[in-house]
Amino acid sequence: MKIIMLSTDRRIFEDSSAVRARMLDYGALFSELHIIVFAKRFNNYDLRFGEPEGKRIAPNVFVYSTDSRNRWFFIFDAIRIGRRIIRRWRPSKITGYLRVSDIVVTAQDPFETGVAGFLIAKFAKAGLQIQIHTDFTGERFSKESVLNKIRVYLAKFIIPRARAVRVVSDELAEAIKSFGVPAEKIQVLPIFIDAKSITSAKPTFNLKKRYPQFRFIILAAGRLEGEKRFDVALDVLAKVIKKYPFTGLVIVGDGSKRLSLAEKALSLGLDNNVIFEPWQDGIISHLKTANVLLLTSEYEGYGLVLIEAGLAGCPIVSSNVGIAGKLGRNDAALICEFGDISCFASAVISIIENNEARELIRARAKAFIEEFLFSKRKYLIEFKKGMEAALASKHQDI
Which among 51, 70, 220, 226 counts the fewest CB atoms within 10 Å? Predict the structure, then answer.
């Protein structure tokens, strides 16, 4: 089976990243894997990946940068590269037409990569799989921006036309059924997490020693973008320090909201209680040495950091997004509805004040998460099944 994958994750360009390692694992499942990454021209990573034939990162795995002038060219450049790959497998009739029927195109979302994937699959007469990691079905997603409204329309067009759909949670699977996708076409496959590597990892630093001015440290991590709503986390901190003034909030991440968040912290008088750290490829040391993880997102498809926190032994306070609801129903986290600042503050304060409850939440989270996570072997088997489903469905239509 030959796979063309469309992605926006530029960590694939990094030799030692976990994402690169996962791509190599995927490559071992198929005869060829070609990964097209949406990336702008002149990006430092992209300069090494501008070769017309792609960058070979394994004998049968190739990575391509779209090398686009700006984001508006991502789709067009991805289609151009995809067509070039297909032509290698299917030369013109003049040079000798080779029929290749085992091609699957997979896109990491039903938005921009989904559009490119749909058109490449149509050109190749290939099976199409759409992966969905973000919950775009609620009003909050579409209200965030005009672009998100357009993305919802794209998703409604693309998803029903996919041969197979992969989602990361049961909740997303139910939401996608409303798009007219039959249950047999939907695969629920959460993001793979190596539980042992987290539980056995030794912290390389201690937040409490790094910031000794704080007696209690709240950790918030992720992209500093609108939907993550780190501004709510600042409001929560403002309430908590009224009772416990030596509480600190460490925000780990990069994004367009960095400056506005710093300005809000200053306006709330929190400049001595808030620390901003740049995003890192792993935050396990943060999770293992913080007192609580606070997640205040408006929406999440899954919430990977919640799983990492549970495995790292960091108590969780979260809005009811992604997998948080499942954790809450199993008493493995404290859950609040989005925007309920009083609830978030009370939950954090309860973690500060009640040692027994805190330890119970930690133990329940770790046990529950370890029970439902897939092993690496099972995950890869299921991942391959998703591609095979797209191919089998295509053949049924022929």
Answer: 70
Distance of CA 377 to the CA centre of its chain: 21
The rounded percent of the chain whose pLDDT value lies above 90 is: 67
pLDDT at 4: 96
Asked if residue 68 lies in contact with residue 49, where contact means CB atoms within 8 angstroms, the answer is no
Long-range residue pairs from 94-102, CB within 8 A, at least 24 positions apart, any chain: 100/2, 101/395, 102/1, 102/2, 102/31, 102/391
Q: pLDDT for 58-109, tens place per residue?
A: 999 999 999 899 989 999 999 999 999 998 887 655 554 445 678 999 999 9
Beta strands in the chain (DSSP E): 2-7, 32-37, 55-58, 61-65, 103-107, 127-132, 164-167, 186-188, 216-221, 247-252, 274-277, 292-295, 316-319, 334-336
pLDDT tens digit sequence for 347-360 = 999 999 998 889 99
HEC string of 302-324 equals CCHHHHHHHHHCCCEEEECCCCH
- Residue span(s) of the chain under CATH 3.40.50.2000 come to 2-192+375-393, 196-372
pLDDT digits (tens, 9 = 90+) for 267-319: 999 999 999 999 877 899 999 999 999 999 998 888 889 999 999 999 999 99
DSSP 68: B
- 188 pairs with which residues across the strands? 167
- What's the mean pLDDT when you consider all of the chain? 89
103-107 β-sheet, strand order: 55-58, 61-65, 32-37, 2-7, 103-107, 127-132, 164-167, 186-188
Domain 2-192+375-393 has CATH 3.30.470.20: no
CA pair distance 100, 90, nearest whole angstrom = 7
Please provide the distance, in angstroms rounded to a whole number, between the alpha carbons at the two ends of the chain.
18
196-372 is a CATH 3.40.50.300 domain: no
Tally Cβ neighbours within 10 Å of residue 349. 18
CB atoms within 10 A of CB 375: 12
